[in-house]
Amino acid sequence: MKNVTDSFVSLGHWPSAGSFGFNTDILATNPINLSVVLGVLIFFGKGVLSDLLDNRKQRILNTIRNSEELRESAIERLEKARARLRKVEREAEDYIVNGYQEIERENLNLRNSIGKNLERLENYKNETIQFEQQRAINQVRQRVFQQALQGALGTLNSCLNNELHLRTISANIGMFGAMKEITD
Fold this sequence. Notes:
By secondary structure, the protein is mainly alpha-helical. It has one domain (34-173). The protein is 89% helix and 0% strand. It has 3 helices and no strands. It is found in: Membrane; Plastid, Chloroplast thylakoid membrane. The chain crosses the membrane at residues 32-49. Belongs to the ATPase B chain family. This is ATP synthase subunit b, chloroplastic.
């Protein structure tokens, strides 16, 4: 410890001008050298350091300005994108609502069309049934008439003998003659 305090105490004592040598005491010479170097650096390097710091400051300020501009531009683009998104969402909702309305309208039209087609088919079916019934009735009538006619002819043929047959013919001829006279 004594060496440390002696070196600070000996700072005030300078060797005479006649001797030149190296001072190997690091604690004694280091603060002096540092103060000289710092003094020279501050005196000569103040302008350079000031210019370097000013340039660095300007670059930082420019970077901040550019960042702010980019941020504002990004915010503006974000707002535009959000507005477009809201517009697209509204259009999508409109398409969905219109789509559902169109589906309901088409469903109603289809149901109406199916109802009309079913009604037409029902009418056609009823007309076909009536036509077939009328045809069946006409066929039955024809058969009944043919059977009645055959039965009447059979009865007439069995009941009529030659004499009755001749009387019927002469009565009919008489009626035709009377009719002819009336019409003349």
